[in-house]
Amino acid sequence: MSDTRTNAGVDNVSTFKKMFTWSIPGDRTIVLLMAGNLGTSQAVISLLDERAKLAKKGSTTILKAPSLFQVARLIGETLREVIDLNQQGGDSAESPFGASIIMGGQISGDNHKLFLIYPEGNFIESSNDTPFFQSGETKYGRPILVRAFNPEMTVEEATKLLLVSFDSSLRSNLSVGLPIDMYIYERDSLRTGYTRRFEASDLYYINVASGWGEALKKALKALPDFNLER
Amino acid sequence: MSDTRTNAGVDNVSTFKKMFTWSIPGDRTIVLLMAGNLGTSQAVISLLDERAKLAKKGSTTILKAPSLFQVARLIGETLREVIDLNQQGGDSAESPFGASIIMGGQISGDNHKLFLIYPEGNFIESSNDTPFFQSGETKYGRPILVRAFNPEMTVEEATKLLLVSFDSSLRSNLSVGLPIDMYIYERDSLRTGYTRRFEASDLYYINVASGWGEALKKALKALPDFNLER
Fold first, then answer.
1. Cβ of B226 and A172 within 8 Å?
2. Best label site of A172, A211, B30, B50, fewest CB within 10 Å?
3. What does the pLDDT look like over B31-70, one tens digit per residue?
4. What is the fold of B5-222?
């Protein structure tokens, strides 16, 4: 799940999709969630896409790489390349050129996997101990994930949890904004997943966001009151 | 309420009280909550304290200033002085020398007030629109405050809310740690308030922290499930 808010200061706010997908039915599905500098993100996506389309025989692209590990390496190198180029130009910007990328998907013959790719170009893979990644403005939405995430959750429950987590960020920080994009890839399907955009007018989102405020107040009330011994 | 965790990197973690109080019964009570560089915080507190004790006739100190606005100015100046001194020395440190301070209290003849003092030495006062301040590692604990704070709350309810907010930060970030100090000043009492320290073994804290995890899971379950139309 990714939001769509980008900003170059509070007086320059725009909406851009931060989720990008590639899919070859029966062979691979790859999803990228971009966080950080928008110019860097767009350049990385354009380079990955162009090189995949214009690939010469034998060259490695995200559509040809034999494993997701190789795809992650390729994305990390491309990210590093774009950041280095911007910095060598001696250009400066209010925000640094950095970006981090969450990459997930599956390639035929391998398991589905999830990676977090850093601006330095290196990356880590999720595990049973760390089953999810966040990137960008992560802090507001983290406590509810830490408390309520459970690997046994259904996809429907996880969707609800993610919306609540995003809503916590939305209400606390202008750098996160609606609409929210969601992509669900079904393990071993090796085909394009289910996509859904939650707009501000989305009834399910409205229900969850307003219901959550009430639910929190109730949950707080149910806890034992502090006894003030004066 | 303030935590007690300070760190100079994850391999150098210590416990220091970040809450400091001055009180002259019938005249004033002042409470300071320090966030940021520990050296800066300690120097500011020492200077304020020393100057209050060794004050010459006619000089302004936190124990003599005629209003909390003047106290806030004095603290802001002292903070600026300490930061400037450290930076002029050409010293460098892993964390910058900055610190921000929450200051609350009351001086005889004036209302009780709450200020947030920035590293630059300037400050803002709370209002009906912004009735509370956070400083330091604020993001994790903010969503529950934004959602559940209500000016009509009792002190006991507010204590519970603050513990839940601190607990959200504690679980997500190593830079926040137990014990937690609390100070409650009773409006117009003009005397030292109620203090309480919540240690990791504190039964009320344990109840709230473990109860909150369960309460959140229940609250999430009670929200309508997402309907995945595949």
1. no
2. B50
3. 999 999 999 999 999 999 999 999 888 889 999 999 999 9
4. Glutamine Phosphoribosylpyrophosphate, subunit 1, domain 1 (3.60.20)
* Helical segments of chain A, H only: 38-53, 68-88, 142-148, 155-172, 203-222
Q: Which residues contact A88 (CB under 8 A, 6 or more apart)?
A: none
Q: Which of B143, B156, B169 sits opposite A228 (nearest CB)?
A: B156
Is B219 close to A220, i.e. CB distance below 8 A?
Answer: no
Task: Tell whether domain A5-217 is in CATH 3.40.50.1240.
Answer: no
**Nearest chain A Cα distance for residue B216, angstroms:** 7
Query: Tens digits of per-residue pLDDT, A27-76?
Result: 999 999 999 999 999 999 999 999 999 988 888 999 999 999 999 999 99
Instruction: Return the amino acid letter for A51.
Output: R
CB-based contact B211 A225, cutoff 8 Å? no
Q: What's the gap between Cα A5 and its chain centre?
A: 13
The interface predicted TM-score of the complex, written ipTM, equals: 0.88
Query: What is the interface size between A and B, counted as CB pairs within 8 Å?
Result: 134
Residue B202 C-alpha, separation from nearest chain A C-alpha, in angstroms:
12
Tokens of A86: 């911007």
Helix (H/G/I), strand (E/B), else coil: A221: helix
Q: Which residues of B touch A148 (CB under 8 A)?
A: 216-217, 220
Whole-prediction pTM: 0.91
Q: What is the pLDDT of residues B106-163, one digit of tens each?
A: 999 999 999 999 999 999 999 999 999 999 999 999 999 999 999 999 999 999 999 9
